[in-house]
Amino acid sequence: MRKLLDISIGDVFGDLKCISYHLRKNKNGSHSTVYTMKCNICGREKDMLSSTIRLGRGITHKACGKGIKTLDPIFYSRWQAMRTRTTNDNYEHADCYSKKGIDSDEFKYFIDFYDKMYPSYLEMASIIGKENTSLERIDNNKGYSVENCKWIHKHDQPKNTSRTVAFKVIYPDGREEIHSNVREFAILHNLNNETIIDCLNGKTKTHRGHRFLRLRKEAEDELLRSDKKRHRQR
Known about the structure:
- This protein is α+β, with helices and mostly antiparallel strands.
- It folds into three domains: 12-61, no CATH class; 68-154, no CATH class; 167-233, Winged helix-like DNA-binding domain superfamily/Winged helix DNA-binding domain (Arc Repressor Mutant, subunit A).
- It is 30% helix and 22% strand.
- It has six helices and ten strands.
- The chain has helices at residues 50-54, 73-87, 110-128, 182-188, 193-200, 217-233; strands at residues 12-13, 16-25, 31-39, 45-49, 133-137, 149-153, 167-170, 176-179, 206-207, 210-214.
- It has a four-stranded antiparallel beta sheet.
- It is elongated, with a radius of gyration of 25 Å.
- The termini are far apart.
- The relative contact order is 0.07.
């Protein structure tokens, strides 16, 4: 068996750099050399045995998040849900996320989401409670990032999702109208907003006698800009 070489201060393994070492007494009375490794990305430090380091275990920045997810399961579930929406093409609403090009690359690793979003999450959760704290994108045409994310009450989220689209509705009596908020329209007319989305995506043709047609991108952008301007003026 090949003898493990000593590790020197300054040596780099993966994302970690050795900054010091010391002897640790084991239960059987022997001693082991423990190396203090510092992550070059987040700056966290941890003690590791040379055998673990040489085998390449726990030497990536991703590993810095080990154990943290259990500290706040609700916060961790918010990260999981975000990653599912943006990376799983089999997700039921993938057309609104991964297949639309909405990514969460900045938060690929939970540790980065934790470092960048946990303080603001705690601030909002202290006001409305953790269970009610939901992650929201500010601009629904962009992905998840520090600049484009905020925490809101979960009951407010549906008002600003990618389901907010400009569409034409043709009523059973033939009347036509233009709207831009699926959820509000569904509530007002006692309809199912998810079924309306299916109509807009071509998965079904009608919903309780109503036909729904998504407007062209140019018309949609113009209507949504008008809606945002109107809301700011209120």
